[in-house]
Design brief:
This protein has no helices and nine strands. It is mainly beta.
Length: 128
């Protein structure tokens, strides 16, 4: 039985980190057969989603050097009609750990040409 990690997402805007309620958060994972949907959530008034449980490799896989990816990798898409869409690729989740992914959205009113564009953020894999 695989181990599990937890992922939560916090969505906000501006340097003041004002929470955004009502943002759609989609969590997917790449497989040999394409992308697999793990969860779809809507942010609450604090800009957060309830944690999503994700299968991860066993903790023992991260105890030796040279182990291939001792973590699970997921993608997080955040969409709200009043803000720029953001896709965060390669979010890394470890067994037994709650990971919080923060997402800062730019209002469409600041950059109107971005209404149908997606900002892509690629997280570099950790060298463990």
């Amino acid at each position: 039985m695989p181990a599990t990690g937890l992922l939560t997402v916090r969505v906000y805007t501006s340097d003041a980190q004002l929470p955004i309620a009502g943002a759609a958060v989609t969590i997917t994972q790449e497989t040999k057969n394409g992308s697999r949907l793990l969860a779809s959530r809507i942010t609450d008034e604090s800009g957060k989603i309830t944690p999503v449980r994700v299968d991860t490799p066993e903790l023992s896989g991260s105890l030796s050097p040279g182990t291939n990816n001792p973590f699970a990798i997921v993608n997080v898409l955040v969409d709200h009609p009043d803000y720029e869409r953001v896709l965060i690729e390669n979010v890394q989740l470890f067994p037994g750990i709650l990971t919080q992914q923060n997402v800062d959205l730019l209002p469409i009113s600041v950059q109107p040409e971005a209404w149908n564009m997606t900002e892509i953020i690629d997280i570099t894999k950790q060298e463990l």
